[in-house]
Amino acid sequence: MSVSFDIQSSIANYRVVIKNGAFAEAQRQDENRAVLCDNFFEEAFSGNARVIAIPANEETKSLKSVPDIIIKMRDLALTRQAKLIAVGGGSLQDVATFCASIYMRGIKWDYIPTTLLGMVDSCIGGKSSINVGRYKNLVGNFHPPETVIIDPSLVLSLNAEQKIAGLCEAVKICYARGSLSFSEYMQLNPQVDMDVERYADIIELSLKAKKWFIEVDEFDKAERLLLNYGHTFGHALEGASNFEISHGIAVGLGMLIAINYAQVSGGLKKAPVDTQQLKDYVVGLLDQIPTLKEIIQRIDVEKVFECFISDKKHSASHFIIISVNNSGALERLFIEKTEINIVNLKSAISSVISQSYK
After folding, report:
1. Where is the 3-dehydroquinate synthase N-terminal domain (predicted)?
2. pTM above 0.90, yes or no
3. What is the percentage of the chain residues whose pLDDT exceeds 90?
């Protein structure tokens, strides 16, 4: 399989290539490039003279790790004409985007996502999100790669939980795009044990759905904000669990909390067919993670809410989330910071934790 398409960007257009075997092709040595990769892939690029390998985790995806990486790039004698090749999942991508954008005022880079989460979502959009202290994704910028190179066969190296994380993000994007895209996603019957070709179809569908959002609203001012569905609550769960819950899984849980909030607050009288189908599908995915219920039940609702209120998307007077309305469409809610609304938010969070997310 080989599919390619372009992403239009006011900064610089870039190309997405989905091709089986692309990872092997990318391992060739090139004197005018350096590789920034997840430690897991360091050996795969051992033939390259210039490799920076880092742990792919939330600690590395932080402002405090950036100076060390920049210094390593300089020690490798990277010039402004050099290219950085980023190899890894979403955390690695955030670091690479940020470092490539500020090193010598910006150098070119390519991205090879190695997780399903990266392949279906974060690989396009061009933005970085970096943690600062206890605040998740507090700083960042926009600096798209020249090429995104996706090898669907890399999905075979992932465990079930990593695949589920990616499917949670993919279904969120397709649901956000509208009923037609969501229907196309569900017709593919996406499950953990799919073959590579069906995963490739899911990757293409999800990216083309996201392509619409990032081309009509490149800098997160309007339509693209709907892609935050599940993220505000999800980020709070990540922080409250000390990152025992990974990002994609947290987004899945966050979508369920957002639906619950719409119901307990009275904004959603009865879940539309698509919304109920989405909820059942996400629950079915999360049910396949044996350790998740135990982790969730250890989380304190107050700690989740504390992380929730620190989210950068809120205003001084309102909590801002993405939820569903009575037609099943996503909408941006501005929730006044009143006592009753805080009670409803905590209730929505508690319902997922106490009932083990169902």
Report:
1. 52-162
2. yes
3. 87
